[in-house]
Amino acid sequence: MAVKLGLVGTGTVGGGCIDILKNHGEEFKRHYGIDVELVRVCSRNPEQALEHGVEDIFTQDYQDILNDPDVDIVIELIGGTTVARDVVLGALRAGKNVVTANKALMATYGEEVMGAAAEAGKEIAFEASVGGGIPIIDPMKHSLIANRIDSVMGIVNGTTNYMLTRMAEDDMPYADVLAEAQAKGFAEADPTADVDGLDAAAKIAILASIAFNSRVTINDVHAEGIRNITPLDLEIAKDMGYCVKLLAHAHRTEEGIDVRVHPTMLPLNHQLATVNGVYNAIYVVGDAVGETMFFGEGAGSGPAASAVMGDVLEVARHLQAGIPPFVGCTCTDELPLVPMEELKTKYYIRFAVADRSGVLAAMAGVFADHNVSVHSVIQRGKKDGNTVDITYVTHTAREKSVRAVLADIAKLDDVLREEPSVIRVED
């Protein structure tokens, strides 16, 4: 008997799922013995849905899917945390399994969703919520569970990775690269979630929860974006043997979980340094397996639909075999979160200052006052002849000490009021 599917959302990913079912449905049955049938489709955009030839099973009310006793799996692809939350929780409470690609929902209400799934005795699968088509959640919940995961670092936002790549390779300023990314469809009209690191923060919250078996929500993640990065910063970084990536970090430390998103300078020989354009990569370190990296396209109709349908087929396989849900919420530990101000790392800091004597000495005094040791100083003149860029790279320092340095240097008369560039350095 076929496992019956109800799809909510027919945008880029939803349309991709319909296409996969049409193109490969018979192969799923022949190769794997998995018989799935799409029996209901809901969308707020009827024209978009009907382009995929689903007029016979179309509805504009998702309750029609939740109330349909024949539907075994609900696929939620509308995004957001309002209606989508109602769809997912309503489906679970109606006794249906759920597949979702909703990173914001799982990073904000993951505990509630997982609890509802456990109470209903149903599966909730969300591989496509992180990394698009890259398999990462399933490996972390199955293949790597014999390990203690010590670190997860990732380039998990293709938009910002594309922008930083173009800025570095073609010396393009931020505003021009953003406009190009929007024109190509890589960035939204409102790019805030991408360029301010919020999209990456949701993804690393999900990965950290799985990696460390401890609940991490998006509100726990310190997030900084790429708005203040300039081609000059990328040029200086390259001269120093580094590249700059917007990295999502999650590390197990003696003090607890260190989880954050921000621009990071990586050595050019690091595995993540070669990941350019719209590609994503996630670097996982386990005590037994050592270093692993998962690489691929992080967005788009095909990659995301691939991950969604992979979940659908796996849940369908369990249903057909009579296998109950066997991997639910694993967040049984309550590890403390390390405050961002306690972070200890190296820092790249670039200031624009007046080209006058005594400036370097005054700035050096501020670093000394806060016990921040400087590894190197680079001075570059500007075309106007009146200002210079002064770049510091520190030895390992504490975040709160560096913040105090920035605050005091901003008060100096010869320091221009434009925001300094601050990039943390990962060796």
Automatic annotation (TrEMBL):
Protein residues bound to NADP(+): 8-15
Catalyzed reactions per annotation: L-homoserine + NAD(+) = L-aspartate 4-semialdehyde + NADH + H(+); L-homoserine + NADP(+) = L-aspartate 4-semialdehyde + NADPH + H(+)
Alphabetical UniProt keywords: Amino-acid biosynthesis, Methionine biosynthesis, NADP, Oxidoreductase, Sodium, Threonine biosynthesis
EC number: 1.1.1.3
Active site: 203 (proton donor)
Record family assignment: Belongs to the homoserine dehydrogenase family.
Name used for this protein in its record: Homoserine dehydrogenase
